[in-house]
Amino acid sequence: MKYMRIVVLALMGMFAATAFGQEQQPTANTMNTVREAVKAQKRAFVAMNMQLTAEEEGKFWPIYDAYQKDLTELQKTVGAVISEYAKEYNANTLSDEKAKDLAQRSLAYQDNLNKLNSSYLEKLMGALSAKKAVRYLQLENKINAVIQYDMAEKIPLVMRYFDPSYII
Description:
Number of helices: 5
Shape: elongated
Low-confidence stretches: none
Strand content: under 5%
């Protein structure tokens, strides 16, 4: 779990820090290498914690792969929101209208993530016991919590505290 957290934090930290201009832009190869390492470690982490029988594995892994594909597509939407926010933040041009748009899109991401999890819970319970289906979603939730924490730590608040234009 510790190694998984380090790899996930490295990937998310590179993205957030780069977006907000805190570090140099990593190369596409570097990002792809880290993404692939995260995927491999996540799969190993899930396998270790699911304790599936051979029969369950045959049913579970195709669902896992489909979920990861759908999750990746969904995560691209929140990545776009973060990138747009970073652009506006770094240029100090975030308008109320744009802030509202970004907030609505961020909330839509959370709604869509919940819908994704609900739809996959049904699929998982068709292949596994309810306990194991829930265990898998708990693992995904724990991984997501690590990512969310790291992102929250790196993404600055909307208003810059020491920007003279905000002083009354």
